[in-house]
């Protein structure tokens, strides 16, 4: 994880670095630092805590210069403190480096360097980069980096500078993202585009193994064999305003409210008449016709989207689908081959386990389709085909709009696949029509929660009081059946991520096999009981919970009268849609409920403790 940035040009660098880091804080936020090169001196300032601590410090005592690097950290080796924060330098402050990734053989390198007389200050793996580059330096920083990375095992995106080379920054990447931004008389390096979007929209994605040499406004790139290469420059279409809060208190809230538009844009772009088109998908139709099964691989929220994808794909294509978390798939000798289409789902496109799973699947002969949000990400580039969700930048650590966008794409892909294979079902006729209604229905749900009579805020307030009155000893259980079961998992994940309240998701039919033992007046039980084939069974589950003194929040369909006969404690309604399409709507109030509960607790919603947006380490 961690975010890095570098700048060389004519502007005052500290401000550019700090602003860029503020857009990368989603990658880690336990400490931050910058290094500025001026008058043949490298000056480093780094602070434990959020970026604001560093920003305040720099306001008090600024560092001036026009070349610099910066870092926002998510600790892997060494606790968050000032010393372990990046940038790291060699003993003489000749070299400064920022690093995102993990150096697996750092102990060995450290021991060798110590024997040569290098003193280490931090507990990090990253510090070895600074000493190693210093050790390999013979008057040319680019050459020193080239030699150094040959000794490194693991993942890295780095930016380095040397005090004797006043306008130069060298970058390198292996399995951690890195982009170059090209402006007028200035160049940038960054882990992600939002960090540089204030200054340029011209971006170059750096390939694995590449080394980048930025000198003023000149950018040279070398591949892993040391050959000079040209990489395509891409024009970024979206605006920085899309990565800003736009009047909302938190990015998470803004992103929840963006969902109707995201869905609308996806359907508008992909549904052409009675067909679905994915212009970027390059997996041959012949291959899609021949597949015997589908494996969906992902982590966290994307995994939950994948679980829903199983229901959707199996129903519409009748192809068997199994779903795995990436970290399990990659290590369990998975049974995939030429007849399996592997679908990897990832918002960031950089999740280390999902990337490794993708490679594992490819090595076994499977074609891999990626469903990704971030353009040009590692997963998008390494897959055989990609479908972008185009949900725009998702900044809040808790994923919301990326999830509904992934669901939307999975519906469309199911339809597309059934069409390609010529096995569309009779009921498919209404499929696209129903999908196109979803953005307006999502909008309708959200409108109710933009008013002063926001019932979710009220429920959240009551839960908060209840929780405090019980000495912080309450929890949540989420129950659902069939296609909404993954939403039970996702609702629980949202709540625990941002409010630190313990929450479990279960298939409601499993309740009697264990979770029912939890029921007394303590857990709040969210029951997803929208119109469905299993509706009556959900009502029975609710009765069983009520009979044991449980407290129920029921999610039901508008116009449902039966639920009135059961004395549920809270009722949240969503518009009527066929069961198969309900997950996209049901998740919206669950996201909001989690949000409002976290807001009651006063937690840092966009940057919850211990988490990072992009998990680029195992
Ligand atoms: C979601 O709220 C989480 N922060 C997390 O589970 C996330 O979905 C997971 O890390 C996968 O990320 P990806 O979609 O970028 O691969």
Architecture overview:
By secondary structure, the protein is an alpha/beta fold. It is built from 18 helices and 27 strands. The strands form five sheets. An eight-stranded antiparallel beta sheet has the order 3-2-4-1-10-9-11-15, covered by helices on one side. A seven-stranded antiparallel beta sheet has the order 5-6-7-8-12-13-14. The structure holds 2-deoxy-2-amino glucitol-6-phosphate. The site of 2-deoxy-2-amino glucitol-6-phosphate (AGP) has 15 residues, from helix 9.
- Give the proportion of residues in helices: 25-40%
How many structural domains does the protein architecture include? 3
Distance between the termini: 10 Å
* CATH topology (level 3) name of the largest domain: Glutamine Phosphoribosylpyrophosphate, subunit 1, domain 1
Poorly predicted regions:
none
- Tell me about the largest β-sheet: 8 strands, antiparallel
């Amino acid at each position: 994880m961690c975010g890095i940035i570098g700048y060389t040009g004519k502007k005052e660098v500290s401000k550019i670095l700090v602003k860029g880091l503020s857009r990368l804080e989603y990658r880690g936020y336990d400490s931050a630092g910058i290094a500025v090169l001026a008058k043949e001196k490298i000056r480093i300032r780094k602070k434990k805590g959020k970026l604001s601590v560093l920003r305040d410090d720099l306001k008090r005592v600024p560092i001036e210069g026009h070349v610099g690097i910066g870092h926002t950290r998510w600790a892997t080796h060494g606790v968050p403190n000032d010393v372990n924060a990046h940038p790291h330098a060699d003993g003489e402050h000749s070299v400064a480096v920022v690093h995102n990734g993990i150096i697996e053989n750092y102990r060995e390198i450290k021991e060798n360097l110590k024997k040569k007389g290098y003193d280490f200050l931090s507990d990090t793996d990253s510090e070895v980069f600074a000493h190693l580059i210093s050790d390999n330096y013979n008057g040319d920083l680019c050459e020193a980096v080239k030699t150094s990375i040959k000794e490194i095992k693991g993942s890295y995106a780095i930016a380095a500078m040397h005090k004797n080379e006043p306008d130069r920054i060298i970058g390198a990447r292996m399995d951690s993202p890195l982009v170059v931004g090209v402006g007028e008389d200035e160049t940038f390096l960054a882990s992600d585009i939002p960090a540089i979007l204030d200054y340029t929209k011209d971006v170059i994605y750096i390939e694995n193994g590449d080394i980048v040499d930025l000198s003023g406004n000149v950018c040279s790139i070398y591949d892993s064999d040391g050959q000079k290469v040209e990489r395509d420059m891409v024009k970024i279409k979206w605006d920085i305003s899309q990565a800003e809060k736009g009047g909302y208190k938190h990015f998470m809230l803004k992103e929840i409210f963006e969902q109707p538009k995201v869905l609308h844009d996806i359907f508008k772009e992909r549904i052409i008449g009675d067909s679905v088109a994915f212009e970027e998908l390059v997996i041959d139709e012949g291959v899609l016709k021949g597949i015997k099964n589908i494996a969906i691989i992902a982590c966290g929220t994307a995994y939950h989207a994948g679980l829903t994808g199983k229901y959707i794909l199996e129903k519409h294509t009748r192809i068997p689908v199994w779903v795995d978390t990436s970290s399990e798939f990659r290590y369990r000798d998975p049974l995939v081959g030429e007849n399996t289409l592997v679908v990897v789902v990832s918002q960031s496109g950089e999740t280390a386990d999902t990337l490794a799973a993708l490679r594992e699947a490819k090595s076994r002969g499977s074609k891999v389709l990626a469903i990704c949000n971030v353009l040009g990400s590692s997963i998008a580039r390494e897959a055989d085909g990609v479908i972008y969700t185009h949900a725009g930048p998702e900044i809040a650590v808790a994923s919301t709009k990326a999830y509904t966008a992934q669901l939307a794409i999975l519906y469309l892909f199911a339809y597309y696949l059934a069409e390609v294979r010529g096995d569309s079902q009779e009921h498919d006729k209404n499929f696209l029509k129903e999908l196109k209604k979803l953005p307006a229905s999502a909008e309708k749900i959200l409108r109710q929660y933009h008013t002063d009579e926001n019932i979710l805020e009220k429920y959240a307030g009551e839960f908060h009081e209840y929780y405090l009155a019980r000495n912080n000893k309450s929890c949540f259980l989420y129950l659902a059946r069939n296609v909404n079961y993954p939403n039970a998992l996702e609702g629980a994940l949202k709540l625990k991520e941002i409010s630190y309240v313990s929450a479990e998701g279960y298939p409601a039919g499993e309740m009697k096999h264990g979770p029912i033992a939890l029921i007394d007046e303590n857990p709040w039980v969210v029951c997803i009981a929208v119109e469905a084939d299993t509706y009556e069974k959900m009502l029975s589950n609710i009765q069983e919970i009520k009979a044991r003194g449980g407290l129920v929040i029921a999610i039901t369909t508008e116009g449902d009268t039966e639920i009135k006969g059961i004395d549920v404690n809270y009722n949240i309604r969503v518009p009527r849609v066929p069961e198969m399409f309900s997950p996209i709507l049901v998740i919206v109030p669950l996201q909001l409920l989690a949000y409002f509960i976290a807001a009651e607790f006063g937690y840092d919603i966009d940057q919850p403790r211990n988490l990072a947006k992009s998990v680029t380490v195992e």
